[in-house]
Amino acid sequence: MTQFINKKEDIVAEAIDGLVAASGGRLARLDGFPHIRVVVRADWDRSKVALVSGGGAGHEPAHAGFVGPGMLTAAVCGDVFASPSVDAVLAGILAVTGRAGCLLIVKNYTGDRLNFGLAAERARAFGLNVRVVIVDDDVALPDLPQARGVAGTLFVHKIAGALADSGADLATVTAAAEQVIAGIHSIGMSLDTCTVPGAPKEDRIPAGKAELGLGIHGEAGVEQVDYVDARGAVAMVAEKLSPFMRPGVPHTVLINNLGGASVLEMQVLLYELARSPIADRIGHVIGPAAMMTSLDMRGFSVSVYPADGTHLAALEAPCGPAAWPGISRLTPVEVVNLPDGLKPIKPLPSAHAPTRAFLTRCCEILIGAEALLNQLDAKAGDGDTGSTLAGAARSLLSVMDDLPLADHTQLCRAIGLELSQTMGGSSGVLLAIFFAAAGDAASSGLSLTEALKAGLQRMQEIGGAQLGDRTMVDALHPALASLAEGGLPAAARAAREGANATAQMVRAKAGRSTYINAEQLRGHADPGAEAVAILFERLQG
Amino acid sequence: MTQFINKKEDIVAEAIDGLVAASGGRLARLDGFPHIRVVVRADWDRSKVALVSGGGAGHEPAHAGFVGPGMLTAAVCGDVFASPSVDAVLAGILAVTGRAGCLLIVKNYTGDRLNFGLAAERARAFGLNVRVVIVDDDVALPDLPQARGVAGTLFVHKIAGALADSGADLATVTAAAEQVIAGIHSIGMSLDTCTVPGAPKEDRIPAGKAELGLGIHGEAGVEQVDYVDARGAVAMVAEKLSPFMRPGVPHTVLINNLGGASVLEMQVLLYELARSPIADRIGHVIGPAAMMTSLDMRGFSVSVYPADGTHLAALEAPCGPAAWPGISRLTPVEVVNLPDGLKPIKPLPSAHAPTRAFLTRCCEILIGAEALLNQLDAKAGDGDTGSTLAGAARSLLSVMDDLPLADHTQLCRAIGLELSQTMGGSSGVLLAIFFAAAGDAASSGLSLTEALKAGLQRMQEIGGAQLGDRTMVDALHPALASLAEGGLPAAARAAREGANATAQMVRAKAGRSTYINAEQLRGHADPGAEAVAILFERLQG
User: Does the domain at residues B8-329 carry the CATH identifier 3.40.50.10440?
Assistant: First the structure.
C-alpha cells in the first residue's frame, strides 16, 4: 500500500516538523534529529510540574499532538512503533523540568518502561524530582499481570495536565495520575490491519471477522470474532468493559478512532454505544476522534473512567492542543418538531376562462410534440424529453380544476409546485424553480412577462446555464425578451431562431449534453429549446 | 470491505443521532427520519442570520459536525453521496430562519443546486429572506464552467459563520460568502478509492499511481499520475494551485484529510507543504484534519484562500464545533538547543582497595558462571544469560581504574551508567536502573544494603516483576532482605532458596519466559535468579 511519506527513516522527524510549523509558534522541538525527537511547549517557563509522555510513533496525534497548555509539556517520539531511546527521554525531561519536578506518563510496553525508567534515574542523578506512572488500561488480556497501555492514556494526560496547569505539586499530580490509571479500562476492535511503513500490509483478518482486544502496534488482537455489524461490535466491546465499570457511578467514555475508520462509521459506533447495555452508565463522552491511533487501522477503541468531581472538572477544563476533542454530556437525542409549511397549502381554486384556455392549449401543444421531441432527444440523450414534458402537461391538465386560475401569482406558484411533484428529474426541478420564482416576482408587483423573466434568471442561477450552453434557455431567453414589445409573433420568431442556433452548439456547457461528443450534437437542435420554440410557434396558430 | 455500520439505509440517521447524543445538548435534530435528516443548533433563537448547508452524507464531519455557534445553524443530510430532498432542505430552512433571513451554502453539484435552489424558492413563498451561494472551489478541471464544490467550502462556513454570529445582516454575510467563494481554490489527491457502503470497493488506482483532481464522491480523479512520495505529491498539488493564488498576498491553506490517510501521513504532507514552492505564500494553516471527507479515501486536499483583515479575523474567531481544527500561523520550526547533561559527567576515579577487590571478585564469579548460566538459559530462552552477564562483568573489569571506588554513591551510579552503555537488552537497562536508583538512595544517606533494596524496588516498579514471577528478583529480593541481619551467609542461603524455588514456577509473569510453555520451564531454575545465587554463594567462599 502506497502512503503519503518520503523515506521511511525520515517519517517521524518530518511529521514533527510539520506539526511544529503549523503550531503558530506554540510548539518547538529539540535539536537532536534524527535520534532525539522531542516536541516541547515553546512557552514553557518550568514554573509548574512538567508532564512528559511519548513512545513509538504511529499513534498520532499522540503524543506530540497533545503537547500544549493543560496537557503535556513535552512528547518524546521513537520510530514507528519503537520506543524512544533513553537519551531522547532524558533530553525531554531535562528540557522542561524545573524545581516543581516532572511526571513521566508511560504506556505499559516493555521498551517504554525501560527507557523512560532509566531516563528517570539519570534525571534524578541531576537532582531533578522525577516521578513515573505506568498506564495499563487494556482489558483484552485480563490474566496478564501487565496489561498494555492504550488510548485510556489520554485520561491521564488530560487530568494530570489540568491539575499541573492549575499549579498542583508533583505529589498531587502523581497521586491523581495513579488514581486515574487505577480506574481506566479500554478495549479495541479492528476490521483490518494497519500499514506499517516499509512493510507489506498483513492480510490477517478474513472477511466477516474482526479482531477484539487490540494493542496499538498492529499486533494481532487477542481473539478473532465473527463480525456482523456496528451494533454487534459495540455489544462485544461493552461486554468486555462492563465487568470493570464501577457500579452505580457515571463513567466518561473515550471513543478513539484507531486511524482508518471513517468519521461516519465513528458516529454510528457512538450511536450504538448510546444504546448499548452500558449506555445508562455513561455520563460523558470524549470523541469520537483519532487520539491514539495505530497508523491507519480500521478500528476503534473504547475507554471508560468513572470521572467525578475534580477529575471531571479537569477533563472539562479548556486546554491548548487542537487534537483534544473536548468532552460532552451524553444526552438523549433532542428531536425538534418539523416546522409548519412542509406540506404546501394549495391555494383555493378559482376560475378564469381565458387563462384556462391558454394553459390547456400550452399543455396540448406539448403533448402533441411528444414524439418529435423524443426523436430529437434520442440524438443527444436518452430520448425522453418529449415524454417528460408531455407527462407534466397531462398532469397539469388533470388538476386544472384545482388551480387558482384567476390569480397569476398564485397560479405560477401552483404550477411550480405541481411540476416539482410530478415531473421529476433535473428539468422538473428547474421548471419548478422557474414558475415558483416567477410567482415570487409577480407577488412583488411585476407584470407577468417581467415575472417570467425573473423566474428564468433564478432558474439560470440555480441551473447554471448561460446563453449558448445548448439548453432551453437559448430559446426561452430571447422569446421572453421579445414578448413585451413584439407580442407572441416576435417571441415565437426569437424562440425559433434561438432553438435553431442550438443545432450549431456542439460544446454543451450545462445539462446532460455535456457528456455527449460534438459530432453527435451537430445539426440537431437541443430538444428543450425546440420545445420552447414549438410552444411559442403553435400558440400563435 | 467490512465497515462499522448496521443497515446501509440507516447509516445517516444513526450517525446523526450519535453526533447529537454526544453534543452535550448543543445540537438537536428535526423529527422526520428517515427522509428528513436535519441537524440544528439547540440554542438557536433566530435573532441572527441563519446559515444552512448540507448535501450528501459521506463527508463527515461536514456538514452536521460544523453546526454550532460561529459556524452553521443547520445541516441538511442526504444519503451517502446523494443530495437531500427539497423537502428536507426546506425543513432545515424553516426550522432556523427568522426575520434576519438565511443563507444557503451549497456545494456545486447538480443535485444540491437544484434541491437547495427549489427549497429556497419554496421558503421565499413563505416570505422568508433566503439567499443562496454556490461554492465551486475545485480547480481540477479548469475548463469546466461549473467547478465542483469541495473542502474549500469550510472557508465559507467559518467566515460567513463568524460574520453572522457577530450580527451582520444577510446582505453583508452573503456578499462576504461570495467574496470568499471567488477566492478559494482547492485540489485533491488520493492513493486509493473509498469504500461506499453496500458497494464493492473499486480497485481503480494501480500501485505506483495516484489520482489528482478529485471530487468528494468517490468519482475518479481528473488524471492518474505517477506517485513517488509525499514531496512529489505536494509538488503536484502546489503546481495546480499556484496559478490561482493571488500574487503578493499571504494565503491561508486548509489541509483536509479525505478520510483514510493516517494522522502521521497528514503531518508529513504538512511538512512538505511548508517547504513546497508555494510555502512562502502561506501565512496561515487550517488543519491537517478530516473536515470534508470522502468516506475512508486515502487522500488529502489542499485549499487556498487569501484571507486578510476581517476574513482572517473571522477564521480566527472562536467557534463551537469541535470538528473545526482552528487556524495557526505557519512559522519556521523553532529548534531548541539540547539540554546539558545528556553526556553524563563521569565521576572522578578514586581508589579503594577493599571495594576494588570485592567488585573484581563479583565480576570474576559471573565470568566463571558463564557456561553454566548459558546452559540453563537454553532450557527456557535463547541461551545467552551467561554471556550477557559475563560480558558486562568483563566491561566493568576493563574500566575498574576509572571508577569512583571510594564513594559508594558515585560508584553505584557509575556502574549503572556502564551497564546501560555496554550490556544492552532489557536486562542491561534493568540492572542500570537498579544501580542508578541504588546510587540515588545512597546519596540520600541510606546504608548500602538499604540503598540496594531501594534500587531493587525501583527496578521492580519499572520492570514489573514481582516475587514469584520467575526472575532474578526471586533470588535478589530474599538475599537483600537477609543481608543486613545475617550477613553474606544468610543472604547466600536466601538467594539459593529463592533460585531453587524458581524451578517450580512454571507460569512466568514477567520477562522473556512468559512466552515459554510450562513444561519446558519445570525443573529448571531461572538463569537470572541462579546467577544471583551463585554470586552470593561464591562471594562467601
Answer: yes
Omega into A63 within 30° of 0, i.e. cis? Answer: yes
Percent pLDDT > 70 in chain A is: 97
For A18, which residue in chain B has the nearest alpha carbon? Answer: B271
- Produce one character per residue of A465-491: b if its CB has 16 or more CB atoms within 10 Å, e if not: beebbbbbbbbbbbbbbbbeeeeeebb
SS3 B350: strand
Strand A299-305 and strand A327-329: pairing? unpaired
**What is the chain B residue with the closest CA to A262?**
B296
pLDDT, tens digit (0-9, with 9 covering 90-100), for A397-432: 999 999 999 999 999 999 998 888 888 778 889 999
Q: What does the mean pLDDT of chain A come to? A: 93
Pick the CATH number of B353-540 from 1.10.1740.10, 3.60.15.10, 1.20.1250.20, 1.25.40.340: 1.25.40.340
Helix, strand or coil, per DSSP, at residue A170: helix
Q: Where are the domains of chain A?
A: 8-329, 353-540
Please pick, among A157, A185, A217, A524, the residue that the annotation labels catalytic. A217
Question: Nearest-CA distance from B183 to chain A in Å?
Answer: 19
Does the pLDDT value for residue A59 go beyond 90?
yes
B439: cell is 546510587
Q: Do B90 and A341 touch (CB under 8 A)?
A: yes
Given this model, what pLDDT does residue A1 score?
A: 58
Residues of chain B with pLDDT under 50: none
Alpha helices by DSSP H, listed for A210-295, are 230-241, 263-273
β-bridge partners, B300: B189, B257
| B27·A132 Cβ contact <8 A | no
* Burial class of residue A254 in the structure, from the number of CB atoms within 10 Å of its CB (0-12 exposed, 13-18 middle, 19+ buried): buried
Contact A73, A47 (CB under 8 A): no
Which of B43, B228, B268 is the mutation pick for testing A, counting most A CBs within 10 A? Answer: B268
Q: Which of B22, B108, B469 has the CB atom closest to A330's CB atom? A: B22
The 10s digit of each residue's pLDDT in A109-160 is: 989 999 999 999 999 999 999 999 999 999 998 776 678 999 999 999 999 9
Q: In B, which residues are within 8 Å of A121 by CB distance?
A: 416, 432-433, 436-437, 440, 458
Radius of gyration of the CA atoms of chain B, in A: 34
Question: Chain B contacts of A331, Cβ < 8 Å?
Answer: 21, 23-25
Separation in Å, CA of A489 to nearest CA in chain B: 31
What is the H or E stretch that residue A299 is in?
A: strand A299-305
Q: Nearest C-alpha of chain B: how many angstroms from A349?
A: 18
So what's the pLDDT on residue B517?
64
**Tens digit of each residue's pLDDT (9 = 90 or more) over A331-375:** 999 999 999 988 877 789 999 999 999 999 999 999 999 999 999
Angle in degrees, 0-180, between the axes of helices A425-443 and A448-463, rounded to the nearest 10: 140
Give CA B280 to chain center in angstroms: 28
- Please check the confidence at residue A509 and state whether its pLDDT lies above 80: no
Question: For residue B264, which residues of chain A lie inside 8 Å, CB to CB?
Answer: 5, 11, 15, 57-58, 60, 80, 293, 295
Active site residues of B: 217
Q: Order of strands across the sheet with B282-289?
A: B223-226, B209-212, B185-190, B299-305, B251-257, B282-289, B327-329
Chain B residues close to A60, C-beta within 8 Å: 262-264, 267
Compute, in degrees rounded to 10, the torsion defined by CA atoms A144, A146, A147, A152.
160
Three-state DSSP class for residue B163: helix
pLDDT digits (tens, 9 = 90+) for B318-350: 999 999 999 999 999 999 999 988 887 778 999
Instruction: Choose among B327, B241, B229: nearest CA to B283.
Output: B327
